[in-house]
Amino acid sequence: MAGKRKTKRAVVQRENLAKPSKWRLQHGPFEGPIRATDPETGTPTQHRRAVDSLGMMLAHGTITPQMHEAGEIFRGMFRAACFDGMSTSQLMRIPGARVDTLSTMQIDARRRVAAALDALGGHDSPGGSCAWFVIGLEFSVREWAMRQGWAGRTMHGPVGQGVLVGTLGMLSMHFGLTPRSAAA
Question: How far apart are the C-alpha atoms of 109 and 105, rounded to whole Å?
């Protein structure tokens, strides 16, 4: 009489939590880990920083440091204007108080973002759209190019990168980082 066959147990591969997951790696690379100590407890920690599109373009020499700085200035103004934030409700409600009031800093940042978008040709121009989605909302160039199109045609990735380089050049002149005489 033959004995029963033993079934092999499936070995579950556990994900290494010290490294970024496969899902996270498909959305962009990471720099190497930076070792530091936690200031409160003194225990050693390891930080990984995700590389953004502007940082990668600067590292590859696609854009100048002035263009990178202009992108960072626009991104900072965009965040200060709270265009990227999620609206939340107040935990403690005060009768007669308005929830949707803007601070003077937010209003000033929104005016500066609007002036920068006007310098790029407005919201509906390729430069304005690229600044809003790629620099402000931090979409990837490829993702923005696939969803954006003009005259009924979609935009290819390399064309989108060219639009981003042109946008950063215009922002660099708008913020005074590149003199107008050097651009001509």
Answer: 6
pLDDT digit string, tens, across residues 159-183: 889 999 999 999 999 999 988 765 4
The dihedral through the CA atoms of 169, 81, 83, 30 has a sign that is: positive
Question: Do residues 141 and 164 make contact, with C-beta atoms less than 8 angstroms apart?
Answer: yes
Integer Cα distance of 70 and 160 in angstroms: 18
pLDDT at 111: 95
Helix (H/G/I), strand (E/B), else coil: 148: coil
pTM, two decimals, is 0.66
Interatomic CA distance for residues 45 and 140, integer angstroms:
29
Q: Report yes or no: 169 and 177 within 8 Å, Cβ to Cβ.
A: no
Distance CA 12, CA 42 (A): 35
Do residues 75 and 136 lie in contact, with contact meaning Cβ atoms separated by under 8 Å? yes
Contact 147/129 with Cβ under 8 angstroms? Answer: no
- Rg of the chain's alpha carbons, rounded to an integer? 23
pLDDT per position as a tens digit, 11-26: 667 777 667 677 666 6
Q: What is the DSSP letter of 159?
A: H
Distance CA 133, CA 160 (A): 12
Q: Write phi, then psi, for 64 (nearest 5 degrees).
A: -85, 165
